[in-house]
Specification:
By secondary structure, this protein is an alpha/beta fold. The chain folds into two domains: 164 residues, 3-Layer(aba) Sandwich (Rossmann fold), CATH 3.40.50; 146 residues, Rossmann fold (3-Layer(aba) Sandwich), CATH 3.40.50.2020. Helices cover 28% and strands 28% of the residues. It has eight helices and 14 strands. β11, α6 and β12 form a beta-alpha-beta unit. 40% of the residues are buried.
Amino acid sequence: MSSRFDELRVFSGNGNRALAEAITNRLGFPIGDMTINSYPNENIFVRLNESVREKDVFVVQSLCSPLSDRLMELLIMLDACKRASAGRVTAVVPYYAYGRTDKKDQPRVPITARMIADIIQVAGAQQLITLDLHAGQIQGFFSIPVDELSAMGQLVRYFHEKNWDNPVVVSADMGFAKRARNFAEQLGAPLAIIEKRHSLSSRSQGERLAESYSVIGDVKGRRCILVDDEIVTGNSITSAANLLIESGAQLVSAAIVHSWFAPGAAERIRSSALTELVTTDTLPIAADQSWPGLKVLSIAPMLAEVIQRIHSGISVDTIFSRKRSF
């Protein structure tokens, strides 16, 4: 099926250029030529060095550290493409920041995830591609089409190939239990859940500390796969791993889609009871954050196929309705 738009082009910000290059390598053409500079006053400047008039443009940008710079880069890139008369502009945001602020759960607080959705659309995005949103309702914050993909299938396949005879999938908290149950069903394994309660260490700053209390389910003598969508400080996942070992687990691995790795997180994970952490490249991982037990699965093949299908006007969901080898 041919596209109603002209040539397909993919541009990248500085959020995860390695991922964007892997996508274009898969698609068989070079990444788009774009200049991104920061002036001494910290103003960000973007210039497209090639014409995008009537072209189908995909802008790849993970919202990673430094977050405010990466967000502004994305918005300015989208605006530049819109003003250059692109036929269609799609924001490809593998990691959607501020996903945890999706509702008013305290007095006088913002819904930042909704605000981010608004400004991405105002900047010029006509549709969005993202992965494993922290809260499903964020899709509804947009009035443009949103394709929320999932890397969970890749994580399931990784552990399926290990062919363990006694695995158990463990949800890192109650809030993730539904998606963890789906993970367990695909793997053909039972489900356990970490009961976790949050306490505010400082109400003035709103800093939350998570403490794991107990395990719901049988993990004794089993190989545990801790499943969650995101890791930042590593406090929750390492606390859960240690609790599982104390509860008689044979070993503990973790399957995480987005790995931010705040300062100290990588060292905290390395010194924990976790045997292995399997994640994806939705966020860039620095060399000093790596360790022998870290396995990074690339989402580039999946994103490349989705981009090609959207450009060609072919259904996206069919690639998830059967086993893939992304």
